[in-house]
Structures are given as C-alpha cells and as structure tokens.
Amino acid sequence: MTLKMDTIKMQSAAIRPIANMLARNLFTAEHEAFRETVRKFYEKEVVPNIERYEQQQHVDRDLWNKAGAMGLLCATMPEQYGGSGVDRLYSMILIEEQAYAMDSSTGFSLHSDIVANYLNNFGNENQKLTWLPKMATGEVVTAIAMTEPGTGSDLQAVRTTAVLDGDDYVINGSKIFITNGYLCDMVIVVCKTGSGDKGSANLSLLIVEADRAGFSKGKPLNKIGMKGQDTCELFFDNVRVPKENLLGMQGMGFMMLMKELAWERMLVAIICQAGAEAAFAHTVQYTKQRQAFGKPISAFQNTRFKLAELRTEIDFCRAYLDRCMQLQLEEKLGIDAAAAAKYKISEMFSKVVDECLQLHGGYGYMMEYPIARAYIDNRANRIYAGTNEIMKELISRSL
Question: How far is the C-alpha of 383 from the C-alpha of 359, rounded, in Å?
Fold first, then answer.
C-alpha cells in the first residue's frame, strides 16, 4: 500500500511544542538565543541524517566535531577547561531541542553532562586539563561503563575487577548497553578494586583510553528502538592503566555514582518531558489535517477530550520538572525528587505516545510518521538510569 498523506507525514521532522498553559519562567534572553542555535544545529546537521544514522547504528564521527565547534559540548564546564561556565539550563535546552527534533541518535548529554561532571567534580587538575578541553571540542568522545551482563541496576554486583599490580591497575571484565561506546575515545569504568565483603566500598572509577591493549568494543547492539544511538558492549582483557587514571579515591566509586545519578535521572526526565511535548504537537497537527467522515478527526469529541487529557498531564509534569530544575540550580534537589521526576515523567511519556499513536490510526504504525519512531524510541526511558522500579524504591526510602 502506498501512503498518500504527504501533507501530514513529516518523517524525522523537528517541531515546536505547543505552549504550556502555565508560562515557563526559567530562561533568560541569553538562554533563548542558545536555544535558537541548538535548534538550527539539529535541523541542519541531525534531522536530515537520522535515517542514515539508524542504518549505521551510530552518528557520523565528525558530528561531534561540528557540535564542539558550535559550543554545544561541555558548555557547563569551567572556561579554563574549555567550557563556557554556564548554568545547567543550557543542558536542559540542548536536551529539549534534541527531543523536539525527535532525535534519539546523539549522545551529547551523556558526554557533556555525565562524564564531564565526573571529571570536573572528582578529577585532579591533570585529569581535567587532559580530557575536558578535548571533550569540549569534540576531539574526544567519552562514555561511562556501569552496567554489566546480569547486574542491571545493581551496581554493587559489579564483577569487572581492577587489581593493582605495581604502578598499574589491571582490568578484567565486560560492560553492556554503553552509550557512545562504539565511538568513544575514553571511557570511565566502574570496577571492583577491593575484596571481601565491603560491598559498595569495593567500587572505584578508572579512566580507560580506547587505545589501551586488551580493550575492545563489540558491534553496535541491535536495539528495537533508538537505533541511531551508539550503544555497544565493551571488553577488558588484562587492560593495564596507570594508577594516575584512578578518578577520585579508591573505594569511593559508589559515593561518586550516587552523587551524579540524581542529575542523570533528571536528564531522562527532561528528554521524556520534551519528547511528550513533541509527540503531542505532531498529533494535534495530524488530527487537524486528517479527514474522516467528511471532517477533520479533531472535530470529534473523543479526539478533543483525549487531547485535553494528554495536554493536562503534560503540563502538570512540566510544572514539576521545572520546579525540580530550579532546585537543581540551587543545589537543593533531593535524590527522591529526581527519582520521582524520572519515574513519573517517563511513565507519562509512554502514555502520551501510546494514545497519540492511537489517534493516528493505522498510519501511526508506519515508520514514515514521527509518532511511530517516538513510540519505539521511548520505551528505554523507563529502564536506563535505574529502572522505574528502582525509582520507586528510592522514593519509598524517604517516607
């Protein structure tokens, strides 16, 4: 069957979200100017290439250099390390514009807002000067390797070991589901450096360069969604790294992970919120153009009521998320609040894309329509950065 709805079909098209019922008050004129730069970058450099990225299962390597040249990488890092020293609202804008472009291929936020933060917060001066400026330009692509086959969200069950041998740590083990893993030039690896029953006190973080002997990468993993995102397995076979590659102190890995995971969960909440807004905007546009029984389907009460329900849920989550972001800027955001944002907003996004696909009818099941890609790409949000079941556990501990 040939689809004949080109006026409606907008494959991989960027879209502006419908304004929230409550005006947002987080951003200044400088923030909005940055947003315009990011939007144009995604429209020019990313959106036209999404289909190719999905076929090759990773973005082009030079996309990182282009993003770096425009100041889109590591913007929140201090200026002496190559960043712009700006606040995390710039990170929020970058993630929102990625979602409005309906792109799930670029892994910039993990590089700029997770790996860079570990280096900036826990690295020594030499480590910061070695890596952060190159990360800001895109000369170096980074990843963080936490998850292992069989461990899932249980970081204390990590089996990858790093044994001190003279002036080197010798690393053995493997990691799975590593974003940016295939293209990475450097990876921060969660390792067990202790022995016995110390539990979390056994964990440490080690910087591993991709050209180290014994370090290898698997092929990009064949996922059901987010096909353009670089995700692979990493293998460590007697990989030797100098003691100077230890990030922070030995045995402090779990503490460092817990400190940064709250922000990582906020990143997931931000992309889910913006993703829901984008899916909703596409669906409103579709229902106004799609005709059934001689009138647009937006004229039917069921459609109007369903859209009203979704609009309300989206806007309620937006208000909570923006409040969490204010607390994040003030360094007052609690682990439980971040967990709640990740849990609730990722669940909301799943509901929105499901209902929006239903409003598209059969066309919603066609990959030529943005809602189909959003439907399959979204599902992983309830799993990574800690499953939503783990989020509930974290919330319950605060009661």
Answer: 26
All residues at 6 or more sequence positions from 77 whose CB lies less than 8 Å from its CB, including other chains? 83, 84, 85, 112, 116, 120, 132, 135, 136
Per-residue tokens: 67: 């993003």
- What are φ and ψ of residue 80, in 5° steps? -65, -15
Asked if 56 and 65 touch (Cβ cutoff 8 Å), the reply is: no
DSSP string, 326-385: HHHHTT---HHHHHHHHHHHHHHHHHHHHHHHHHHGGGGGSTTSHHHHHHHHHGGGGTTT
The pLDDT of 227-250, averaged and rounded, is 97
Cβ atoms of 135 and 115 closer than 8 Å? yes
Task: Count CB-CB contacts under 10 A for residue 15.
Answer: 18
pLDDT digits (tens, 9 = 90+) for 44-103: 999 999 999 999 999 999 999 999 999 999 999 999 999 999 999 999 999 999 999 999
Q: Which pTM value belongs to this model?
A: 0.92
Exposed/middle/buried for residue 197 (C-beta within 10 Å: 0-12, 13-18, 19+): exposed
Active site residues: 264
